[in-house]
Design brief:
- This protein is mainly beta.
- It has helices at about 1-20, 125-130, 130-135; strands spanning about 30-40, 40-50, 55-60, 65-70, 75-85, 90-95, 100-105, 110-115, 140-145, 155-170, 170-180, 190-195, 205-210, 220-225.
- A 14-stranded antiparallel β-sheet has the order 8-7-6-5-4-3-2-1-14-13-12-11-10-9.
- The radius of gyration is 18 Å and the shape is globular.
Amino acid sequence: MRKACFFFVWMAACCASLCSAWGHDDPGCQEVRHYLEERDGKTHPVLWCLDGGEGFRLTSKGSEGTHVTRTDASLHTLSWRVEDPARRTLLRAVREQNAIVVQGRLNGKPIDQEITLDSDPWFQATSLSLRDFVMSAQASIRFWSLRSNTLKAYKLQATKQGVEQMIVDGRGEEAVNVEIRLTGWKAPFWAGHYWYRRADGLLLRYEGAGDAPGSSRIIISYVGGERLCEPTADGLPAGKGTDPPPVLEIPPDAANGAAPPMAIFNPSGSAPDN
């Protein structure tokens, strides 16, 4: 009982400090979700903040920096911004037709490159961009995603595995199990499983490989929180049309054998080089 009480007090403290970081003068937090990430015997809180308008701005923050992903109304990624001072990383990626232009610094090294794609969508934050797919009758979908620590582009395929019953935040939920794999001959080398709430496509859980061969699996679990920060009196969303100061995102970041970027948020890492 003491451990349970300590856990909820600790979570409340984390949330309170992040509300202060956002500030009550930032009404952009229209939808806020709380997650816990477990890896290598450690647990980290993750916050996920969504702001809507003509498109969406997803901001998430965790142990691997701040990620801001902008999408169109169809949840296709338009731009992705990363700030991680600990890794000397500050970069911005923008889709321009069938290419992604990336500029900034990655691990202290300057980056200025153009990555060629095809016409398939770019989903950098699978926690958000697969929502419409989850609620549709479509069985599978292919998309591009960038591996955040190398900026390599990978074609991935998400395939529905069925509907399962899950207990989330003390309530029973119907969840769609989605498997994401590399495509082509690389398909056997990595797969991750995502569970999304059937009713609205909310990400409930992720399980996948760790950052390196032999490392523990990564588990990301939804722990609740429909709304965290209170909007300002005018209720107007902030930052429309511009990238805000870095605030929030955490996917499992990948090294060999790791998971693709999620946003869990932007999620959040990416697929292996194998």
